[in-house]
Specification:
The chain has about 450 residues and is α+β, with helices and mostly antiparallel strands. About 40% of the residues lie in helices and about 20% in strands. It contains 16 helices and 14 strands. Helix 6 (about 285-295) crosses helix 7 and helix 9 (about 335-345) runs parallel beside helix 11 (about 370-385).
Length: about 450
């Protein structure tokens, strides 16, 4: 039989339907089912089959345009990722729990999976540090682990637990142990008679700042340096008070935090402005995982930390602009001028003409803003604007007092609104950012809410 060519086109729509059009007087030569591998975006091809079709053996007459729905078909993933055991144990004074994740089955390809902690009888406010991230398995790699930092408080509280969970698998599936518990075994043998924040060697005080502001264990030189800043006062109480305040503030003002956590703050500000009816651009539960992502593996002064930091910034910016919230706020139909101007409007700063033109140029000659890398570069450049950095410094300083010391939003209980936040911002502005004269840092580190995280 003579085979004649058939003229047709296929349009893949965002809602999951495919519109098939055949040339005038032509119809599909195929029977009831069509199977194709359709490439979507920049990822691997996904297999699709027509969900609705005609009866057995009948031709699909598509002389006129007709819609059919293509549904994803399982490609046959034969690997599983799960926790190695149902419960991980740690003694409180050890300071860190190591959680192991295993991959079994076909491990010939790369795979990834997200993880996060969740409160149980142990809470992120006083027993451990909230932890989240992504484990990336290389081809052939079968085990991964991540640390969860534990707070060695002075309370006699028995064994407490929190959970860890796995989600969002890529090129793998979550196994039966998608959730595991972590048990913290208390080793305080007697009721507390003091607060560890007041320990003479100052090491608990300093370590907790690393955990709360930098999301990591202290490096040995850093722990010794900052502890010595306090202990060198001896028994001089006035000196001790001032040094503790200065050491505490140094963590917010450090290069490490300014280039990680504070950049996250400014990216939210540039992307979305302030939260409606609130004086801040980001919430605690948004800030924590993002600040951990951008700071992962960064220890200023150790190794090639600058390269690690730059790689983290690039990866975080790409992740940020790929989220559905950002895509909704900034449709790709926006032209580059509109996109960049909207970022600056949210940031509340006016760029120079040269800076604005340069950032618009990230999109080249494109008439839309569909390029994800260009979006990421543009957002990051606006967030790194020096006027924005200076403008938001006091606002972020006050917000981080709540996020770092109190582990909550300013309006969370026991507060009911932003009255406390506004008070301290007013004080800090009144004294031109002088946190000592404003007595802001002092007030937070001696507050009952902060001290009760660790002891009486």
């Amino acid at each position: 039989a003579t085979e004649l060519p058939v003229s047709f086109e296929i349009e893949l729509r965002q809602d999951g339907t495919i519109l098939t059009r055949y040339g005038a007087g032509q119809q599909s030569p195929f029977a009831d089912i069509i199977s194709r591998v359709v490439g979507i975006g920049g990822g691997e091809p996904d297999a699709y089959v027509i969900d609705t079709h005609t009866s057995e053996g009948a031709l699909i007459d598509l002389t006129n345009a007709r819609e059919v729905t293509f549904l994803p078909r399982a490609i046959g993933i034969n690997s599983t990722v799960q926790f190695s055991v149902p419960q991980f144990n740690v003694v409180e004074s050890a300071g860190v729990a190591t959680v192991n994740v295993t991959r079994i089955g076909d491990t010939s390809t790369q795979a990834s999976i997200d993880y996060a902690t969740q409160d149980g009888s142990a809470t992120q406010k006083g027993d451990y540090i909230f932890t989240s991230g992504t484990l990336n398995f290389a081809a052939g790699e079968t085990t991964k682990s991540f640390p969860v930092l534990v707070v060695d408080d002075n309370f006699q509280e028995g064994t407490e637990t929190f959970s860890v969970s796995l989600s969002n698998p890529v090129n793998t599936v979550v196994g039966a142990r998608s959730i595991a518990s972590v048990a913290i075994f208390d080793d305080d043998l007697a009721p507390p008679t003091s607060n560890p924040l007041d320990n003479a060697d100052a090491r608990f005080f300093v370590r907790q700042h690393y955990l709360d502001f930098l999301n990591r264990e202290p490096d040995s030189p850093g722990l010794s340096f900052w502890s010595d800043q306090i202990t060198s006062c001896g028994t001089n109480q006035e000196c001790l008070e001032v040094r503790r305040i200065n050491v505490s503030a140094a963590f917010f003002l450090s290069i490490e935090f300014q280039e990680t956590g504070y950049l996250v703050y400014r990216m939210y500000k540039a992307a979305y402005g302030n939260i409606p009816n609130e004086p801040v651009p980001v919430r605690y539960t948004e800030f924590l995982p993002d600040s951990q992502q951008i700071a992962l593996g960064v220890v200023v002064g150790v190794g090639d930390w600058q390269t690690t930091l730059e790689n983290n910034k690039q990866a975080f910016a790409l992740n940020f602009v790929s989220r559905s919230r950002f895509a909704t706020a900034y449709p790709t139909t926006l032209i580059p001028d509109q996109f960049v101007d909207a970022l600056y409007a949210n940031a509340g700063v006016v760029p120079s003409a040269a800076e604005r033109t340069s950032i618009i140029g990230e999109f080249g000659t494109a008439l839309n803003t569909s390029s994800i890398p260009a979006r990421a570069r543009a957002l990051r450049r606006v967030a790194e604007n020096q006027a924005l950095n200076q403008q938001e410094l006091n606002n972020a300083f006050v917000l981080m007092e709540y996020f770092g010391y109190l582990r909550r939003n300013p309006s969370d209980p026991p507060d009911t609104d932003f009255g406390g936040y506004n008070f301290w911002l007013g004080k800090l502005n009144q004294f031109n950012g002088n946190f000592i004269t404003a007595e802001m840092v002092k007030s937070f580190i001696v507050s009952g809410e902060y001290r009760q995280r660790f002891g009486s």
